[in-house]
UniProtKB/TrEMBL annotation:
Keywords recorded for this protein, A-Z: ATP-binding, Nucleotide-binding
Domain ABC transporter as annotated: residue spans: 21-261
An MF annotation (GO) of this entry: ATP hydrolysis activity
Record has Isomerase as a keyword: no
Family matches, as SUPFAM superfamilies: P-loop containing nucleoside triphosphate hydrolases
Species of the source: Goekera deserti
Protein name as catalogued: Sugar ABC transporter ATP-binding protein
Lineage: superkingdom: Bacteria
Length: 275
């Protein structure tokens, strides 16, 4: 794996080809509850597709379908123009779809480099003499985090001593190193302050500029709009629209998410008499 980032022009050139991932009219029900209905979007190399919606919009179900946890009841998925079916998260991961969930799948008391290779440890030797190659793991961890612009003080420090933004960045760099083509980020900025959220948005841009297709799940249009290239809006399991960046403004996204007329009505109710 190289530390050299592609130029923005190279990423843009790849965006004109078949999408890395295409979601075609996907639907999912749980009993009588419609969790998703007729949802479509595309994820292209070198671009960020933002999936926005409030609580209960269907974002979690959408993530689980892309990552192989659930199979859609209707519609289909395609990678590079070829229809695919994922029977498990392992199959999605083997196809190049990596998901960073909110819990980050990290062990707080374990060193950064151990978390970086958790489940995919490099080894040295052979047969009964095979052992964990800690020297290589530490060197690769430092190099790959550096390539993402992450300067760690000590790879031996417990990952739990890092800030929330730093832990998110380690999870992103780990997914990139292990061969992700599509990177799904589940609300990576939701529990962070303004400064730490900005740090994570920079790392999302780094992953994008390395040619990955990024799916950024969020309820915050102020975080999505600066980094997003495409915006899928969900409300109660249904799509409110799938827009390229030039087709919608941040204020329009906010209004659609908030319910437009409902928000205006609420503002009228909250006004003081005589205002």
């Amino acid at each position: 794996m190289t530390d050299t980032l592609p130029t923005p022009g190279a990423a843009a050139a790849g965006a004109g080809d078949a999408p890395l991932l295409e979601v075609r009219s996907v639907g999912k029900t749980f009993g009588s509850v419609i969790s998703l209905q007729d949802v479509s979007t595309v994820v292209r190399a070198g671009q960020v597709t933002c999936v926005l919606g409030d609580n209960g919009a269907g974002k979690s179900t959408f993530i689980k379908i892309l990552s192989g946890v659930h199979q859609p009841d209707s519609g289909s998925l395609a990678m590079n123009g070829q229809q695919v079916t994922f029977g498990s998260p392992r199959q999605a991961l083997d196809a190049g779809i990596a998901t960073v969930f909110q819990d980050l799948a990290m062990i707080p008391l374990m060193a950064i480099w151990r978390n970086f290779f958790l489940g995919s440890e490099p080894t040295t030797g052979w047969g009964p003499f095979r052992r964990f190659d800690s020297a290589t793991a530490k060197e690769v961890t430092r190099r790959e985090l550096g390539a993402m612009g992450i300067d760690i003080r000590d790879p031996d420090q417990p990952v739990g001593t890092l800030s929330g933004g730093e832990r998110q960045s380690v999870a992103i760099a780990r997914a990139v190193y292990h061969g992700a083509k599509v990177l799904i980020l589940d609300e990576p900025t939701s529990a962070l302050g303004v400064k730490q959220a900005g740090v994570v948005l920079r790392y999302i841009a780094q992953a994008r500029d390395r040619g990955l297709g990024v799916v950024f799940i969020t309820h915050n249009p102020h975080h999505a709009f600066p980094v997003g290239d495409r915006f899928l809006l969900l409300k109660r399991g249904r799509s409110l629209g799938d827009f390229a960046k030039g087709e919608v403004t941040r204020d329009e996204i906010t209004s659609m998410m908030a319910g437009g007329a409902e928000l205006d009505e609420l503002a009228h109710e909250l006004e003081r008499p005589g205002d």
